[in-house]
Please model this.
Amino acid sequence: MLHKRKKIGAVPHDLGVPEGDPFVSVNEPGWQDTNDWKDLNSKFVLMIYRDYVLTGKKDNAFLHEMWPSMQAAMTYLRQFDHGGGIPENSGYPDQTYDSWVVRGVSAYCGGLWLAALRASEETGRALDEPRAADEYHNCSRRRRRLTSINSGMANTSDMTWRANTGTASRRTSSLDNGMRT
Model:
């Protein structure tokens, strides 16, 4: 099945396959369409903000240059939010753990999303863009409120985290086919 190599707004997974030309064929893992992965965009935003913080929060020119790409990455990822406030995994390995099947909101991708919202808020403040900063802040507040209320927020294919009690419980996963010892 053919897929679009790089959708607008999606962060590429890699530069291409070894036998390809990475300057012509960006984002070609060959075996899976990474455009809809739920962790790459959040990690991109976090890496930009991390680099800014490592400059002592002084390289505003870098931050200003990256701001439109950060906003595009966040906007793209929002399409996977099906009403719960956090982008949802789609029941296939749609994040960097290549064979980890997750359906719905996961602790891994959901946690990255929440952190990316905060990084985007702080970026907006650093660039004196209060409207954008407030939008990300409000999204972050709403999501945190939802996750503290919804004890099943961090539902992965193998673990269920109960945010209200701080406990975890194991359940049979499609990965182990019920072969727990």
